[in-house]
Model the fold of this input.
Amino acid sequence: MYAVGHLAIGYLSGKATAKLAHVNVNVPVMFTLAILPDIDLLIPRLAHRGPTHSLIVLALLFVPVFLLYKKRAIPYFAALILHPLIGDILTGGAQLLWPLTTTEYGLRLDIANPANILTEWTFFLASLALLYTAKDLHTLFQRHRSNLFLLIPIFTVLLPTFLMFPIYVPRELIIPHLIYLTIFTLSILVDLNQNPHKSSSIFEESSRFP
Done:
């Protein structure tokens, strides 16, 4: 999937598991984790959809997070692992069991085909609807130090895609990319224009994050 699909799936899955676990979530951190495996696009000589998409690697990296935050870590882990489990299994496949094997698991559908574009639009529109109804959109436009995490999706996948790097984005998905880019940029500007308040943890929301 393109960035839009990964961001939307990460947000939707994180919110769903947060509701099941009866915990609050930090939306900027969840969006960041949803796109984090694609950091390999910017690392020379590192195979795309390789180590950073491995369920084994991601699970091991999250062990200390689970030990520290327990069930509060569940939504963030869901947002992270569903990047390869849904987004990349549908289009192209991923080395889910690296380093045990470099076999790529997936349906290998063409990422630019109309079915995938429609799927990404569907997830994107669902994420916008939930952002509004859950009042997370309002939350993103309030100051919080975690807003700065959104710099990661902005500079790794959203802005670069308009330069056709690291991956070409079809014109049918330009609008949702621009909308996410606008939301994230405004969220960061709000935070930079005001003094950030203290928070006990990036995985714990302040009173402004219901």
